[in-house]
Amino acid sequence: MKLLLGLFVSSLRRRRFATSLSLLAVMLGVALGVAVSVVNRSALDEFAHGVRVLSGEADLQIVGPRNGFDDALFARVALSEGVAVASPVVELDVRLPGRDAPLRVLGLDLLRSLQIQPALRPDTGPTLDAGALLDPDSIYLSPAALQTFGLRAGRTLRLQLGGEAVVLRIGGVANGFGPGQLAALMDIAAAQWRFGHLGRLTRIDLRWATGGDTPAARTALKALLPPGLQLVPPAQRELQAADMSRAYRANLTMLAVIALATGAFLVFATQSLSVVRRQTEFALLRALGVTRAQLLRGVLAEGCAVGLVGGLLGVAVGHGLAALALHTLGGDLGAGYFAGSRPTLQFDPFASAAFLLLGLAASALGSWWPAWRAANADIAPALRSSHQALLPPARVHHRAAAVLATMAVALAALPPFRGLPVGGYLAVACVLACAVVCLPALAHLLTRWLARWPGLLLGLVRARVAAAPSHAVIAAGGVLASVALSVAMAIMVASFRDSVDAWLARVLPADLYLRSAQGAVAVGLEPDALKRLAALPGLARLEPIRHEQIRLDGGALPVALVARAVPAEGADRVFPMRELRPCSGDCVWVSEAMSDLYGWQTGQRVRIPIGGGEHRFEVAGIWRDYARQSGAILIDLARYQALTGDMRANDVAIWAAPGVAPDTLRERVRALFGPGVEIASAELIRRSSLALFDRTFAVTYALEACAVLIGLFGIAASFAALAAARRREFGMLRHIGVTRGQIGTMLALEGALVAGIGVLGGMLAGATISVLLIFVVNRQSFHWSMDFAVPGASLALFAVAMLGFAALAARLAGGQAMRLDAVRAVREDA
After folding, report:
1. What does the radius of gyration of the chain's CA atoms come to, in whole angstroms?
2. Neighbouring-strand partners of residue 550
3. Which residue, among 86, 381, 44, has the nearest Cα to 235 in the 3D structure?
4. What local confidence, expressed as pLDDT, does residue 387 receive?
5. Where is pLDDT greater, at 515 or 764?
6. Which residues, other chains included, contact 647 with Cβ-Cβ below 8 Å and sequence gap of 6+?
7. What pLDDT was estimated at residue 506?
C-alpha cells in the first residue's frame, strides 16, 4: 500500500506545473471565502462588543425613534412591577468641526447607570466627585477619542449642533469603552440641555429584579409604551447589524464559492489529462494486481492532496487578505455597514474549517470522474505499444441541459428564505451547469463556423480541436465559469451604476445642499437658522428636509422617515416613482423595500407611529430608493411638522437666484454658518456617491479577477499536459518543414480557439446570470430594482483580452515540448 501511495505522490511531483496551478486555484478560492468571512466576523464582533459596553448588564431596553421620546415615560417605567433598575439614556452622534469621524455622546444618570453599566464611568479618582459629574460644561472622552482627535483633559472641546457650536470642557477620561470606540460621557441633564434634547430620551435600560421577569410584568411594561416604542433585548442590536450586512456578505461568499468551483474545473482538467497520459501506467498496475477500488482511491487521493494543501494555504492566505482588507477598507469592506470601524483581526475557526472542507470537496469532485475513468478503463488496449491515449468523445446531453434550464427558471421564482435569495443562488448554479453541459455543442458550432476561413495553421488548429473536442471542453470549462462570473457582474454593476446615476439626478435637483451634521439625526437646523438662511441675498428658494427613524410593529430594523415638501404636481417630482396613484387625504409614499418587507401596496391603509401617536395613512406610491436598505417612508413636511411639532431640518436644498453662481452662494452660506455645516453641490454629491459605489464593489472586482486568473491557469495547465503528450506530433510537423515558431503560433491559436469556446459559453451564461442577479438576487437581498444595461464595449475588450491571454498562456505552456529535437520526438513513435 505504501508503494502504491508513493507512486501516486510521485506523479504529483512529476506534474509540478499542473499540480502547482491546481493547488494555487484551490488556495485562491479558499482564501477569498475565508477573507470575506473573517473580515465580517471581526467587524460584527467589534460592533457586538461596543453594544455590550453601552448596554452593560441591562436585561431589556426601551427604544424608539432616533429623535427620541418623551422622558415622562421614565418615571412610569421605573415604578413598573418587576423592574429593579431603570436607567435613562440620551445617545447622540455629534461631530467636531472639520472632522468626519462622529463622536457618540452618551448622556447618563451616572448614579443610576452604575448599577447597569458599572464599567462606564468618568475617571475621577478613587471617589466619585458629584460636583464634577454633574457639571453641565464637562464631558469625559474615551481613550480612543482623545487619541483620534488629539485632545487631553482640561482642554476645550467644540462640537457641532446644527448650525451652532457647543463648547465644553474635557473633564477627563471615560473608562469602560472598548478599543477604538469614539465615545464620550456626560450627565444626562447636561446632555439634554446642551444638545437641545430637553424633555426627551433616546433609550431606557432596564434590569429585572430577582424573579421579576414574568409574563405579567412584561405585559404590564409593554402596556406603558406609546406607539413607536419597543421593548427589546440588547442583543437585538447585534442581530440588526448582522441582518443589515448578511445579504452583502452572502453575495461575496457566493462569488468566492464560484471562484472555488472554477478551481474545481481546473483540478478536473489536470486530473483528466493526467489520467489519459497515464493509461498505460494504470493498465500495468492493474495487470500487477492493483484492484479497481485501489486505483480509484489512489487517483482520488491525488486530488484530495491538492485540495488539502491548497485549502491549508488558502486559510493562511485568507487571514492575511483579511488583515489587509481591515487595514485598507475597514470592517465594512467598503459597503458602509460598519463605516469608520477598524476592528482587529480575529481567527475564525468555523469559516476556516468550512472553506477548507469546501476546497477539499472541490478537489475530490474534480477528481471523481477521472478516477472512475482510470479504474474502469480496459487493460489490454492500454498495454499495446501503439495505443493512443484519448479522452472519450464529448457529447451534448440535451435532456440534462433541458432539465437544468427548467430548474433554473423554477428556482428563480422562489421567494427568499430568511431574507436570502437561496433560490436565486441555486438558479445561478443551474445556469452554470447547463452552460458546461452545452460546451460540446458550442465547440462543434465554432469549429464549423471557422471552416470557412482559409489558412494551413488555422486548418490544423481547427482539425485538432474537432478531432479531440473533449480536450477543448475540459480546458474551456474553467474559462466558461470565470467569464460567466465576470460578465454577469459587469452587466449587473453597469446596470446598478447607471440606475444609481439616474436616481441621483432625480433626487438632487437643487444647486446646493446643506447638512447640519453628518450622522446627527436628533439635532438639526433650528427655525431661526432657516430664516437667516432664507434671507441670504442670491438665494431663490430653499427646501428643508427632516430625517427620522421609526420602529414598526413586527419590524426588526428601524425604518427611515423622510419629511420634505411634496409639490402639488405629485410626489414623482421628489423621488422616482415606480407606482403612483391620486391621494387626497393623509398620504405617504414608500420605498420598494417597504413593499417587499412589509407588503405595503398602493391604495393600502397603514398605521405609522409619528410624534408619540399612531396615525393612519394611505400608501399613494412606491418609489425607487438606493440609500436605505431596510425601508423608507416619504411624508409631506407640513404634515410631519403638524403631527410632531418638530420644526428642525437635517438637510436643506438650496436654489441659487438667476445670475448667481452656486459657488458664490456657497461662500455666503459658509460665512453665515461657519465650518460646522457641510455644503456641497449636487454634482459633488453625485461624484462622491458614485465613488462610494465603486469602492463598495472593489472586493467584487478582486473576486472576479481571481476567478479569471484561475480560468487562465486552466488553459495553461491543459496545454502544458497536451503539448507534452503531442511531442511526436510536433516532431512529425518539424520533419515536414514546420518551424518551431509556426508550431508556437499553432498552439497560441489552439489556446485562443479553446478559450473562445469558453468565452462564448461564458458570455451567454453570464448574460443569463446577470438577469438572475438583477431581478432576483439583488431584489431579494437589498430590495432594489434597476434598469438593465449592457456595457458592450467593456465586454468586447474583455473578451479580446481573454483570448489574447489564453493564446499567450498556451504558447508558454507548450514551450517545453516544442524544444524537443525533431528526430528524438519521431523516434519515440518507433
Report:
1. 33
2. 559
3. 44
4. 47
5. 764
6. 526, 527, 641
7. 87
With a CB cutoff of 8 Å and minimum separation 6, the contacts of 199 are 70, 71, 72, 192
* Helices 422-437/235-277 angle, 10° precision: 10
Phi then psi dihedrals of residue 284, to 5 deg: -65, -40
Mean pLDDT over residues 368-383, rounded?
68
Average pLDDT of the segment spanning 290-311: 79
Distance CA 310, CA 23 (A): 5
Q: What is the pLDDT of residues 341-354, one digit of tens each?
A: 556 667 778 878 88
What CA–CA distances, in Å, run from 81 to 44, 56, 77, 528? 35, 22, 9, 44
CB 704 within 8 A of CB 489: yes
The set of cell numbers assigned to 344 is 482587529
The angle subtended at Cα 708 by Cα 359 and Cα 811, nearest 5°, is 110
Three-state secondary structure call for residue 644? helix
The set of residues, in sequence order, having a beta carbon less than 8 Å from that of 560 and lying 6+ positions away, is: 547, 548, 549, 628, 630, 631, 632, 633
pLDDT of 748? 77
pTM of the predicted model as reported, rounded to 2 decimal places: 0.78
**What is the tens place of the pLDDT at every residue in 389-427?**
444 555 667 788 899 999 999 999 999 887 788 898 899
> Which residues does 327 contact at the CB level (< 8 Å), separation at least 6?
342
Could you tell me which residues come within 8 angstroms of residue 663 by beta carbon, excluding any fewer than 6 positions away? none
The answer, yes or no, to whether residue 125 has pLDDT greater than 50, is: yes
In angstroms, the CA 288 to CA 265 distance is: 32
Using CA atoms, how far apart are residues 479 and 25, in angstroms rounded to an integer?
Answer: 13
**Chain centroid, CA 294 distance in Å:** 44
Q: How far is CA 655 from CA 539, 564, 649, in A?
A: 6, 15, 16
- Distance between CA 239 and CA 51 in Å, rounded? 11
Looking at this protein, which amino acid is placed at residue 424?
G
Grid cell locating 626: 438606493
| Average pLDDT of span 418-446 | 84
